[in-house]
Design a protein that fits this description.
Helix content: over 70%
Structural class: mainly alpha
Keywords: Membrane, Transmembrane, Transmembrane helix
Subcellular location: Membrane
Number of strands: 0
Pfam families: MFS_1
Strand content: under 5%
Number of domains: 1
Distance between the termini: 38 Å
Protein name: Hexuronate transporter
GO molecular function, one term: hexuronate transmembrane transporter activity
Number of helices: 18
Radius of gyration: 21 Å
């Protein structure tokens, strides 16, 4: 009854963001599932594949910095529109590539286009939700990353078996243009939206310490101003140390299960579906936890910090994956870690809107996410080197064990640095 009195159109916005993020990760994940097919056709080594992943991540990093600033300037609706057009076209262009170099270039195009997703989505959440609801809303739309990753292991092998790898890229890339139609019809900022009631508008802007400003005519904030704030570096540190772990889960897990447990990636992969389904629970549950604690009366910073510490601890058991004697033991450990990552991700994104005013959120998210992508540039290169070295020695499993150990402790280190930089996550005045 309470929700009906307040109004609920903001949850329609979350649904739009959810499906965009699902498509974003479907397009991103597909190459990991096609890796065995493509490495045979193009004679890729692990190092070649590492270069392709690095090219995507480097372009994604540059795009995040650019798109974050652009979206703060031109607004969420137009910014998201440009982003999904670019990445959907790039995704479809994979189908005409004839060489490894060609894959590097189209992956770069995909990275630039996809970089607009999270700066736009986080800004949209800040525009449509009060602080006490943002982590939960972020957790819901962020779970789209997991749904995309769950859908891919079922959809891609089916398309591959019937139509070939080229059509897998074309079909998944075209889905973005379908979403764009709904986005243009249903999205607008609250002050201009005819579906928003006065009660819901007041609820959206109920944070006492936030100035009610909607639109793209508000004063802009320069990068150098943001980079002078400790709160920016708090967000940067958290993303730098943990985002690369998610890239590993996306791009190397299919290969890990195939090489270690002889999983056939040409068929729908139940282990991958289970892992990525667990991350959906992690994203929504993780976002809900800090929102629930705030509603219970906890200070915002304490609710976020305690939640993130819990998630960091939940990743640690992945270091015992080396002792797994069967695929389902490995699935359980990796599923827990991947779910904890998405819980962490939903919460850390929300800290940006906790610490910064709405007019700077996309820029801050872009800067921090760029740092995460930069970490993602070096980590895949390191992964490729480790795996190729141990593969030649006939001990590929040892290579994965080293990588899992790095993953296990990355989040605790990130949490400690964030806490030291900003113990109470004091709000920035610009």
């Amino acid at each position: 009854m309470k929700e009906n009195r307040v109004g609920s159109y903001r949850w329609v916005v979350v649904a739009l963001l959810f499906f965009a993020t699902t498509i974003n990760y479907l397009d991103r994940q597909i190459i990991g599932l096609l890796k065995p097919t493509l490495e045979t056709q193009f004679r890729w080594t692990e190092i070649d594949y590492g270069h392709i992943v690095t090219a995507f991540t480097a372009a994604y990093a540059a795009g995040l910095l650019i798109f974050g600033n652009i979206i703060d300037r031109i607004g969420t609706k137009l910014g998201y529109t440009i982003s999904i057009i670019l990445w959907s076209l790039a995704a479809m262009l994979h189908a005409i590539v004839k060489s490894t170099t060609g894959f590097i270039f189209v992956r770069m195009g995909l990275g630039i286009g996809e970089s607009g997703n999270f700066p736009a989505a986080i800004k949209a959440v800040a525009e449509w939700f009060p602080r006490k609801e943002r982590a939960f809303a972020t957790g819901i739309f962020n779970s789209g990353a997991n749904i995309g990753a769950v859908t891919a292991p079922v959809l891609v092998p089916w398309i591959l078996g019937i139509y070939g790898w080229q059509m897998a890229f074309i079909i998944t890339g075209a889905i973005g243009f379908i979403w764009l139609i709904f986005w243009l019809i249903f999205y607008e900022i609250p002050s201009k939206h005819k579906k928003v009631t006065t009660t819901e508008y007041e609820h959206i802007h109920s944070d006492e310490d936030e100035v009610v400003v909607d639109g793209v005519d508000e004063p802009k904030v320069k990068w150098e101003t943001l980079l002078s704030k400790r709160q920016t570096w708090t967000f940067v540190a958290g993303k730098l140390l943990t985002d690369p772990i998610w890239y590993f889960f996306l791009f190397w897990l299919p290969s890990y299960f195939a090489s270690t447990f002889n999983l056939d990636l040409k068929k729908p992969s139940l282990p991958l579906v289970i892992v990525y389904s667990a991350t959906t629970i992690g994203s929504i549950g993780g976002g809900y936890l800090s929102s629930w604690l705030i509603k219970k009366g906890w200070p915002v910073f304490k609710a976020r910090k305690v939640s993130m510490l819990i998630f960091a601890i939940c990743v640690v058991p992945i270091i015992t994956a080396r002792f797994a004697t069967g695929i389902w033991q490995a699935v359980g450990l990796i599923a827990l870690a991947a779910a904890a990552h998405q819980a962490w991700s939903a919460t850390i994104f929300t800290t940006a809107s906790d610490m910064f005013p709405k007019r700077a959120i996309s820029s801050v998210v872009g800067i921090g996410s760029m740092a995460g992508a930069v970490g993602g540039i070096f980590f895949p290169a390191l992964i490729g080197y480790i795996l190729e070295t141990y593969k030649e020695a006939g001990h590929l499993v040892i290579g994965y064990n080293i990588i899992f150990t790095i993953c296990g402790f990355a989040y605790l280190l990130a949490w400690l640095i964030m806490h030291l930089l900003s113990p109470t996550m004091k709000r920035v005045e610009l």
